[in-house]
Design brief:
- This protein has eleven helices and twelve strands.
- The chain has about 400 residues and is α/β, with parallel strands linked by helices.
- A seven-stranded mixed beta sheet has the order 1-9-8-5-4-2-3, sandwiched between helices. A three-stranded antiparallel beta sheet has the order 7-6-10, with no helix packed on it.
- It is globular.
- Bound molecules: pyridoxal-5'-phosphate (PLP).
- Pyridoxal-5'-phosphate (PLP) binds next to α3 and α4.
């Protein structure tokens, strides 16, 4: 006998509806996979280069190098910038671990920066503090990795204004924001190097791991190209750098080519869903803030719960109603065991606060109006209960 729950949800809404997306494009995906199985070029097959051209055309970057995942994309970009021991690279603390991890993996020191209470992206004022912290610790500040959290580009102009006097390069960690724009420029062209991820849950995802590096600089592009394939030179058995095996599978490229075709339409739907969420929720919680002249691709729709609300209870009540929610991120990186010893720009009070109050609601291009109504009605009801 199975235990019977007290409340049987009459709907269960997927957090990210990849099944509905697959149903929408199934014949095209299956034909694309079949073509790869037939030609058999599983590594660096024609789809890999076709995808790179299409991604370049999509965002306007001169060079796109696909790779194995978003974390390796960061490692490749850092290696291309010749980052190493004794150097400080500034990263937000309120992000996915990969941003800081890549810095540590290449032997440099991640220095944690606070985020803005409005956009949750890197705070340029805190970056200034972090630069002084690094200098006092005897480190050489070399670069900064802003993260486009939840799909909204960081404030690149403001970050550049702080970094330029110190000759800092910028690597944009755009794992969550491919397809977004900043002051009429596309993600992929906002920094000397941009990295993204095609992890299935990202706005543009494949059916496994994948990533890419974007740059307008031919020298950097050639380095990344070599590094992703064991530091190869003119031919496969000439090695001119210590590199990685960090190529994108042909199968994943073939899948991405099909998904890229519907991506503009999906971005529009995500933006409509986000607008609907905001119109329903703006009076009860802190809804996401998108800067003027900036668009988000809504990797997550993340609200901040009011003081005094028990987040664990809210999550449990939502789940009882068949609505999954997620906490991105429950702990800032400077509070993680692996990263606790690295320098920070002071207390990082905003990161700490956000970790206690954020909650992400279901988001994909495949949620209908009734689902949004149900999610927001339930959420408002649950919050009222929580306040009582
Ligand atoms: C997902 C993500 C990554 C890492 O991407 P993978 O493809 O999972 O390696 C890096 N940075 C951020 C901000 C991410 O969200």
């Amino acid at each position: 006998m199975h235990p019977v729950p007290n409340t049987i949800p009459f709907v269960t809404i997927p957090f990210i509806n990849l099944k509905a997306q697959y149903a929408h494009i199934q014949p095209a995906i299956e034909a694309a996979i079949q073509r790869v199985l037939t030609h058999g070029a599983y590594i660096m097959g024609p789809e890999v280069f076709a995808l790179e051209e299409q991604l370049a055309a999509f965002c306007g970057a001169k060079h796109v190098l696909s790779c194995s995942n978003g974390t390796d994309a960061l490692v490749l970009a850092l290696r291309a910038q010749q980052v190493g021991p004794g150097q400080a690279v500034f990263v937000p603390s309120f992000t996915f671990a990969a941003t800081a991890e890549a810095v540590a993996l290449v032997g440099a020191v991640p220095v944690f920066v606070d985020c803005l209470p409005t956009t949750y992206n890197m705070d340029p004022t805190s970056l200034e503090v972090a630069i002084r912290t690094a200098q006092r610790a005897g480190l050489k500040p070399v670069g900064v990795i802003p993260v486009d959290l939840f799909g909204q580009p960081a404030d690149y102009d403001a970050i550049k204004a702080v970094g330029d006097p110190h000759h800092l390069w910028i690597i944009a960690d755009s794992a969550q924001s491919f397809g977004a724009t900043y002051k009429n420029r596309n993600v992929g062209t906002l920094a000397a190097l941009t990295t993204t991820s095609f992890f299935p849950a990202k706005p543009l995802g494949c059916y496994g791991d994948g990533g890419a590096v974007f740059t307008d600089d031919e020298g950097l592009a050639n380095l990344v190209k070599s590094l992703r394939c064991h530091g190869q030179g003119q031919d496969r058995y000439e090695n001119v750098h210590i590199g990685l095996n960090a190529r994108l599978d042909t199968l994943q490229a073939a899948i991405l080519i099909e998904k890229l075709k519907i991506f503009p339409e999906e971005i529009q739907k995500r933006q409509q869903i986000a607008a609907l969420y905001t119109s329903c929720l703006q009076d009860v919680v802190q809804v996401p803030y998108v800067m003027p002249e900036v668009t988000s691709v809504w990797a997550q729709y993340t609200v901040c719960l009011p003081e005094g609300i028990d987040r664990a209870k809210v999550i449990a009540h939502m789940e009882e109603a068949g609505i999954p929610t997620m906490v991105y991120y429950p702990r800032p990186l400077h509070r993680q065991k692996a990263y606790a010893a690295y320098p920070t720009a002071g207390r990082l009070a905003v990161c700490e606060k956000l970790a206690t109050c954020v909650l992400s609601l279901p988001m994909s291009g495949y949620i209908n109006r009734q689902d949004i109504q149900y999610i927001t009605d339930t959420f408002i009801h649950v919050l009222k209960k929580g306040e009582a």
